[in-house]
Amino acid sequence: MQKWRATRRLLLNSYSSKSRFDHPRSNPISDHSTTISRSSSGFESWTSRILHYRHFATAMIQRNPSFSTLNSNDINHFKGILGDKNVIEDEDTLLSANTDWMRKYKGSSKLLLQPRTTQEVSEVLKYCNSRRLAVVPQGGNTGVVGGSVPVFDEVIINVGSMKQVISLDKVSGVLVCEAGCILENLVSFLDNQGFIMPLDLGAKGSCQIGGNVSTNAGGLRLVRYGSLHGTVLGIEAVLANGDVLDMLGTLRKDNTGYDLKHLFIGSEGSLGIVTKVSILTPPKLSSVNLAFLACKDYSSCQKLLFEAKRRLGEILSAFEFLDNESLNLALNHLEGVRNPLPPAMHNFYVLIETTGSDETYDKEKLEAFLLRSMEVGLISDGVIAQDINQASSFWRIREGVPEALMKAGAIYKYDLSLPVETMYNLVEEMRTKLGNSAKVIGFGHLGDGNLHLNISTPQYDDAILAQIEPFVYEWTSKQRGSISAEHGLGLMKANKIFYSKSHETVQLMASIKKLMDPNGILNPYKVLPHSI
Fold first, then answer.
1. N or C: which end of the chain has fewer CB within 10 A?
2. Would you say residue 226 has pLDDT above 90?
3. What is the C-alpha separation between 491 and 103, in angstroms, rounded?
4. DSSP per residue over 329-363, as a string?
């Protein structure tokens, strides 16, 4: 209490005009489904130090015998559509495209295609469908469940060359762009126009909007702006047979029949390849504040969230939490990271961000909320960023935890939606279950009930995995939670879908898949259980 009051005159200052969204993050990795910037300096140096990894791609899976094998005639046909330079057979390039960033999933594709237009995507898919050549759509290749890399020899279709901003309506704030636009580039473009993306991910430097939509990426702003099911107004997608679906509407209201765009949001490229997106972008607001807070227990974090929603209301834009194991990892493995609340280590930490249009009002409202929370014992200590550099250092801790985990050794990652009141119980139960054989870390988007459960070990161990799975999925199912909050199912969780969805629901999904992709060439072995 005294410490907070003694320091608040120095530290309770907002950083206004420029928000953290304008400032490039230094960390390449996020906990989200789009999780690494491959262009980031140092990526190869630190991943090369991760000696203990393994590939899970073909375990317990057989290649679909109905799929054809690529031949020289196919390659020549693709060159006729795309030109020689956009048909890639280079081994080094293919090695990267075949492998996910965690080095956990690795395919054996012999061909990478880089279409530049929707028409080219259409022609490629039409041919692949006629030949029964399986394909895997790929954007920034930043997922964590094996959804964006081949399982076997599927042809990789990367839409990264389709990166044009088509239009921005400055009255409505509707942006229309191609699927290959990198999220960070869209953020920069919109910033210059006085708008922001409703989606914010740590890997925005490499993830692409088409992949974001296809995985229904969540991220840090969901508590304020909702999911992509709400902000995406329209899409253009190419079906397996090459048909182009033009659903690129820009209207907030359109009740003419079934809203089919939602089939493609979160279906991970299994129903069609998204080629264009229209998305509602909010206006950029001038006042942003970020508080880094300490709490004595998880119950205090819950109560703080409830109070923040009530008392900060319209200006609350992010509510993130991490436990002390998460902060310890960041301090020990991330260069330049410091404890914002020295010298003590607390049990839990919360980041609260507010975004508004009145700097004085917003700052006073946040200060009053924090002081009241301190007085009633919800907060043990805390600080508000004085400027954008301090704010970035706070976010670096929260968003750097996945990078720290990678540097620490092998990781078992789980992305779960759970009731907020019981969410952290799973972390505690896993610690009891695993004892000293592993470190169990819990952090995530508390504002929308999304736990990122990470289990860190020196190396991958089947005995440890057997203790984790299916326990984590069974526990989540008993809570009526979701085994995938925002990462998708991909290959990793395709056979686990029944923990979150009924057999009748999954069967209907399979029927939709069969209708839209009768030959099953689009991202096979992903999303739906292999038994179906």
1. N
2. yes
3. 14
4. HHHHHSTT---SS-S---SEEEEEEEEES-HHHHH
